[in-house]
Design brief:
- It is an enzyme of class 2 (transferase).
- The chain contains eight helices and eight strands, in the order H-H-E-H-E-H-E-E-H-E-H-H-E-H-E-E.
- By secondary structure, it is α/β, with parallel strands linked by helices.
- It has a single domain, classed as Vaccinia Virus protein VP39 (Rossmann fold).
Length: 252
């Protein structure tokens, strides 16, 4: 793997919720974009494992002459992982995000990256972005921000655009059927954040800000919907606490 060549994002410490603030919904604005690498590293268990494995999975499923998409690319960590997993020079790699602040910073990291494969970046809504001839698509902690009623149509569009033998990598925060398990996994996640330096105030305020815009679902719901969308094989390849990454494949 060539992940060591990826440019290291600027590590500005996330202090967005460190002081008392008026409750408001979480938005991927310029203030979040500035601290995003630090925020996601300290908030999402396993993130630093998932990113390099996206490179490995991409290399396994990418097809010559095909399109690869990173939907909700933010600063481009998964985009660059996909880029380094694509050995074919005739592939097209597209990163899509509806936050102009994220796309602007993503352009910077793509330019710094040591790789020749061009990357197209689109600042647009993933619900309406054009998809075709896809061999690998990534939704890395993106679907959870899409309104639940729009998730199946989006996944169906992705599946319809995916070539036989192609795959979707879907990473999500999930909830559990059992309230007891939900409580345990939530507590462990909060302890993970505390171990990474977040205070109780930061954890509480971030949770209040994000709970109306990040709507998690059960693993069963995700698997069933991916199959309904048109994927033939659906499996969990990674889980840490209440965060999972799923591989959905269209069989040849």
């Amino acid at each position: 793997m060539s992940s060591s060549k990826h440019p290291a994002p600027e590590q500005v410490t996330d202090r967005l919720f460190a002081t008392e603030r008026n409750p408001e919904d979480f938005r991927f604005d310029a203030s979040v974009a500035r601290v995003f690498p630090d925020m996601i590293r300290r908030s999402v268990p396993g993130y630093t494992t998932i990113i390099p494995m996206i490179e490995v999975i991409t290399e396994q499923y990418v097809q010559p002459g095909s399109h690869c998409y990173d939907l909700g690319c933010s600063l481009g960590a998964s985009t660059l992982a996909m880029r380094h997993g694509i050995p074919h020079t005739d592939c097209t790699l597209v990163g899509v995000d509806n936050s102009s602040a994220m796309i602007e910073r993503c352009e910077h990291y793509v330019a710094l990256d040591d790789h020749d494969l061009p990357v197209q970046l689109r600042c647009e809504d993933i619900l309406y972005t054009e998809l075709s001839n896809a061999s690998v698509t990534t939704l890395n902690y993106t679907l959870q921000f899409v309104p639940p009623e729009q998730r199946l149509p989006l996944l169906t569009r992705i599946a319809d655009a995916t070539l036989p033998g192609g795959a979707l990598i879907l990473s999500e925060k999930i909830r559990f059927e059992s309230e007891a398990e939900q409580d345990i996994q939530t507590r462990l996640h909060h302890e993970f954040k505390r171990a990474n330096g977040y205070s109780d105030l930061e954890i509480s305020q971030k949770r209040a800000a994000i709970e109306k815009v990040l709507i998690p679902e059960t693993l069963h719901t995700h698997k069933a919907r991916l199959q309904d969308a048109g994927f033939d094989q659906v499996l969990v390849w990674y889980q840490c606490f209440n965060f999972v990454s799923i591989l959905a494949i269209k069989t040849p």
